[in-house]
Amino acid sequence: MMHLADYLFRWTGDSAYADYYERNLYNGVLAAQHSETGMFTYFIPFKSGGHKIWSTPTMDFWCCCGTGVQAYANLPSGIYFYDEQNLWVNLFVPSSVVWKTKQGQMQWTQETNFPQDNRIRLIVRSELPLEAGLRIRIPWWAEKGSLSVNGHREKATLKPSSYHAIKRTWRKGVTVELILPQKLWLCPLPDEERKASLMYGPLVMAGITDREEVIQGSVSNMANWIKKSDEKRLLFHAHGQAGDLDFIPLFEITDQKFGIYFDWKIG
Ligand SMILES: [Zn+2]
Asked: What structural domains does the chain harbor?
């Protein structure tokens, strides 16, 4: 499906396909590899209290593990795109790119710790000044984002699920800074509104638990009772529950038992 979204994006330039790609990158591709052993999952169970089943170096390696390897080989291909006038930035990943235009070559680096942090910097590294367009994806989940060029804040509001276009002469050192605030929200099952997964920006958050959970609280002020409990990591603690419940991104789950869809008794 990501291959298909990639083709559809190239044909249409529609940010919806890039949004879809990002969502699958973090919650599908990255969630399918064990961060310490490098092994791949057979599948990711959605039942609460389940765990990921990992391949082993010599005994267990299913067809899905091969797909996992392919998906990882593809990681760099979804970050940047170009047409005759514009460089397109689709994903927020520390990287660099050389864009060959008719007037000459442009080199950019992207500095970010996204999704742990919401700040993204794009810096021109090439010597030759060039006039060109830059189109930056403003993701579907990013309300109240902001953008500045060399410290000057752009007045235009950044519309989620669109591209913000900048056309100018780019010189060495010009820096575009983008802030994309992430927030907690609930993504219900299509046919069962009370069963939902917790999301943080584009990330599915897994609750670390060995059983079904019923979560109580108010949805309007979720940030008041599901709080970040570690400065460096995306670790959240749900307060006021019957038992302790911590959430981390699904892609960080290795051998813990976890759940994704819980019953939310929310006001
Ligand atoms: Zn398979």
From this structure: 82-181 (2.60.420), 184-266 (no CATH)
136-145 tens-digit pLDDT: 999 999 999 9
Query: Measured in angstroms, how far is the CA atom of residue 184 from the centroid of ligand 1?
Result: 32
d(CA 26, CA 204): 8
**CA dist list (Å): 184 to 9, 161, 202, 225, 227:** 27, 18, 10, 11, 10
Q: What distance in angstroms lies between residue 95's CA and the mean position of ligand 1's atoms?
A: 31
**For 56, how many CA atoms within 13 A lie in the half-sphere containing its CB?**
3
Q: How far does the centroid of ligand 1 lie from the alpha carbon of residue 54, in Å?
A: 12
Q: What angle do CA 113, 104, 165 make, to 5 degrees?
A: 50
How far from chain centre, in Å, is Cα 263?
25
Q: Comparing C-alpha atoms, which of 111, 235, 254 is closest to residue 184?
A: 235
The 10s digit of each residue's pLDDT in 158-187 is 999 999 999 999 999 999 999 999 999 999
Q: Report the mean per-residue pLDDT for the chain.
A: 94
Three-state DSSP class for residue 138: strand
How far apart are alpha carbons 167 and 237 in whole angstroms? 43
**55 C-alpha vs ligand 1 centroid, how far in Å?**
11
39 alpha carbon – ligand 1 mean position (Å): 14
What is the Å distance from ligand 1's center to 69 Cα? Answer: 12
